[in-house]
């Protein structure tokens, strides 16, 4: 996370310089501009606790890798079992995970886990869903035109045309699409703007405009949106964000329950 750059004197020591646990005062030490935080989250109870933070000003893949291994070892020595590692989908993090043994680039040797440094168990990688859906939205919004594996176009203009139509008519087709969702650049950090844009309600609105209203500006949008439309992202986000453990809960928000396993794996087969 980004932090305000400021040097202060605390207990006869200057703080806010780069500190990775082996802080040594010297004239060349840089002022920290970020804090790398490690947090343990319990999966069978409702608690989480930060276990370490490091003040940094840039960090190499090797340095980040070593810190991850140190934290895993320390937590293991305390008696806790770590089953997964969650982080943002930044390229530096993906490179670090690759150095640990993961493989995200080769579909034939796809591997989303690495060996725990202190035992023979696997640590599974779980990229933060909130950050990933923002990356998807940012990519479509920046490039404007993408193609799926079948050659169907994924165009940003469909979202823009839907917004223009709703603004002109003064009505909304049961979705939350507004100007802030299209001009999102000043609010890139807001997850709800990405999830509401790539939602089931927006997907249904686009298909309605093409098939029922037969509007020319939405021609062929259904070639993609009917097969792998934003509703898939909506459901995927519910799955990976789900935390309920009650068997009688309904929908994808139940998470990875055995009762919903079949539906979930059908959904993941789309990607």
Automatic annotation (TrEMBL):
Positions of the Transposable element P transposase-like GTP-binding insertion domain: 130-221
All copies of domain Transposable element P transposase-like RNase H, residue ranges: 1-101
One Pfam family in the UniProt entry: TNP-like_RNaseH_N
Highest taxon of source: Eukaryota
Name of this protein: THAP domain-containing protein
